[in-house]
């Protein structure tokens, strides 16, 4: 899966970090990920509710089909612990026009271990030579997610979109 992003193609591949492998998401990950993402607390800042394994599978099927907008690529990874091989979360990047909007989520059972910070750093580091700008949107009251964005090299802007602060990679 790739898209011309202004500099070179962005093709989803395995990204290694110290304790994690960011593995291209597959529909077969849905059942395990439904359990990882099944805590209602994960929706405190973004809304919604946990999805059933069938709903997660249907979403992953849509994601695997690709973005409907021409020139946009959906890049999705699951986070796999190197020690034990368990899935612990996801990261994603929507790439278009030389920019990537990124997001991350780590299951409640694995929070507080620095996995989101490690995964976001790995993702942003992988994206930087491939695109011009990295953007994330973080709820202003979500201190942990703001710390992840900062650790990934993003800085907050004065822009608020849909109640979330826009964070960007510095020029």
Total count of helical runs of at least 4 residues: 4
Helix content: 10-25%
C-alpha termini separation: 27 Å
Number of domains: 1
The H/E string reads: EEHHEEEHEHEE
Overall strand count: 8
DSSP strand (E) fraction?
25-35%
Could you tell me the radius of gyration in angstroms? Answer: 15 Å
Spatial sequence of strands, sheet with the most strands: 1-2-3-4-5-6-8-7
CATH topology: Aminopeptidase
- Low-confidence runs (pLDDT<50, min 5 residues)? 1-8
Overall morphology: globular
CATH superfamily: Gcn5-related N-acetyltransferase (GNAT)
**Average predicted confidence as pLDDT:** 93
What is the level 1 CATH name? Alpha Beta
Give the structural class.
alpha+beta
What's the main sheet like? 8 strands, mixed
> What is the level-2 CATH architecture name?
3-Layer(aba) Sandwich
Question: Can you offer a commentary on this structure?
Answer:
- This protein is α+β, with helices and mostly antiparallel strands and 171 residues long.
- The protein has a single domain (15-168), classed as 3-Layer(aba) Sandwich (Aminopeptidase), CATH 3.40.630.
- The protein is built from 4 helices and 8 strands.
- It has an 8-stranded mixed beta sheet with strand order 1-2-3-4-5-6-8-7, with helices on both faces.
- β3 and β4 form a beta hairpin.
- α1 crosses α2 (53-65) and α3 packs across α4 (143-151).
- It is globular and about 40 Å long.
- It starts with 14 loop residues before the first strand and ends with a strand.
- The model is unreliable at 1-8 (pLDDT under 50).
